[in-house]
């Protein structure tokens, strides 16, 4: 269904503050404001979020805006794919992602990137880097060489972990847009259920071993992607080997790939290539993973569903998940206010637009706190800019927002 965007009359003297449920539902608002010239054609984006939202969308780079809205709404990852369409049309000229310490999808620093159409990928958007391979793109096979892109646009990205030191405040040019996702303040991964809390740590440790063994700075993106696919296959093979003791033969989807060897044989060349030569730590961690799997599989009331959930978690291990962040909301809000004050001091003008995504229905935010958190964030913004300077526009269904949906 085509997403509908409310079209309130905007006061030209006030800063619009638009609140939506899912982040990609902001895109129609951006396009409407651009068409009506209530937003400058080009601007910098200051993006407070637990996620970069810089994934490549599932449509050609030349897709017109109205079709983009429909395709993002239909995409399973649409909430992470809404920024690049604005970059490739030269609306966003610089992006600053401000994140929390528990977020590590893209490392801190300045990244000189390019986004353009890839003829090899049916003209879909792909990203090129002038210096390094980024896991964020390489794991999806979405990073290419610059010469493989057509009509490439510069994509300067700065990543900052809060709190923002004055020396690190981005020297962004005006105009600029302030964007805030409420899962910036406290974030969950919708792929982690309570039954998986003991399974997650050994998987994350093995993923860290893999990253140490296969440093993205030393590998071409295609080679890194092939190794990453091997890692996912190894994990699936290992997990299915444990699960076969609990599932009937006809309930297991597929069979382990024989080319990977027996999962217990961690001395195989594949395991050495994936996790490094320190076999003691690899063996110990794999044993911990097997023990956690046995515990979860033996106590669950729905074996097939749990196995499916574990396999869906594997490619999403990098997503931030910090249940403890909900207990530190007052401190995080205070730091956000200080960070925003730093940005406002650095910027020559106030933001031309403010946007907020609630993320209450996608599993990244605790629905029980989202309304109070939204109120607190809006209060902070209005206290710094002045309540008489902002026009709040709420474009979300309150009833739907009260339901928590896990993808």
Count of separate structural domains: 2
CATH class designation of the largest domain: Alpha Beta
Low-pLDDT windows of residues: 1-5, 250-267, 400-407
Total beta strand runs? 10
- Give me the side-by-side strand order of the main sheet: 6-5-4-7-3-2-8-9-1-10
Give the termini separation: 18 Å
Element order: H for helix, E for strand: EHEHHEEEHEEEHHHHHHEHEH
Task: Classify the helix fraction into a percent range.
Answer: 25-40%
Give the oligomeric state of the chains in this entry, treating copies of one chain as homo and distinct chains as hetero. single chain
Rg estimate, integer Å = 22 Å
CATH topology name of the largest domain, in short, is Arginase, Chain A
Q: Quickly give the structural class.
A: alpha/beta
State the CATH architecture of the largest domain.
3-Layer(aba) Sandwich
Shape: globular
| Tally of helical segments | 12
Query: Kindly state the mean pLDDT as a whole number?
Result: 87
What about the largest sheet?
10 strands, mixed
């Amino acid at each position: 269904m085509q997403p509908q965007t409310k079209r309130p009359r905007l006061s030209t003297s006030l800063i619009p503050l638009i609140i939506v449920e899912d982040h990609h539902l902001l895109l129609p608002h951006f396009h409407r404001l651009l068409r009506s010239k209530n937003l400058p054609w080009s601007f910098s984006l200051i993006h407070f979020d637990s996620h970069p939202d810089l994934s490549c969308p599932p449509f050609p780079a030349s897709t017109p805006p109205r079709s983009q809205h429909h395709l993002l709404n239909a995409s399973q990852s649409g909430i992470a794919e809404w920024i690049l369409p604005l970059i490739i049309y030269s609306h966003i000229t610089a992006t600053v992602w401000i994140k929390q310490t528990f977020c590590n999808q893209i490392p801190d620093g300045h990244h000189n990137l390019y986004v353009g159409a890839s003829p090899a990928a049916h003209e879909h958007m792909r990203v090129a880097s002038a210096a390094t391979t980024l896991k964020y793109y390489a794991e999806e096979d979405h990073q290419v060489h610059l010469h493989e892109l057509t009509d490439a646009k510069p994509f300067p990205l700065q990543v900052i972990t809060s709190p923002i030191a004055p020396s690190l405040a981005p020297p962004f040019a005006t105009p600029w847009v302030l964007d805030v996702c409420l899962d910036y303040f406290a974030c969950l991964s919708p792929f982690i259920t309570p039954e998986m809390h003991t399974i997650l740590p050994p998987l994350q440790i093995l993923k860290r071993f893999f990253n140490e063994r296969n440093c993205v700075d030393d590998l071409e993106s295609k080679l890194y992607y092939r190794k990453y696919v091997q890692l996912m296959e190894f994990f699936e093979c290992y997990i299915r080997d444990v699960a076969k003791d609990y599932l009937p033969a006809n309930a297991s989807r597929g069979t382990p790939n024989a080319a990977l060897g027996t999962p217990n044989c961690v001395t195989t060349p594949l395991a050495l290539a994936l996790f490094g030569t320190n076999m003691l730590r690899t063996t110990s961690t794999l044993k911990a993973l097997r023990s956690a799997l046995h515990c979860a599989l033996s106590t669950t009331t729905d074996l097939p569903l749990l196995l499916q959930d574990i396999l869906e978690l594997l490619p999403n291990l990098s997503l931030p998940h910090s249940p403890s962040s909900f207990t530190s909301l007052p401190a995080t809000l205070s730091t956000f206010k200080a960070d925003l004050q730093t940005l406002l001091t650095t910027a020559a003008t106030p933001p031309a637009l403010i946007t907020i995504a609630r993320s209450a229905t996608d599993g990244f935010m605790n629905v029980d706190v989202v309304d109070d958190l939204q109120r607190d964030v809006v209060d902070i913004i209005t206290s710094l800019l002045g309540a008489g300077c902002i026009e709040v526009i709420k474009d979300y269904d309150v009833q739907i927002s009260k339901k928590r949906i896990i993808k």
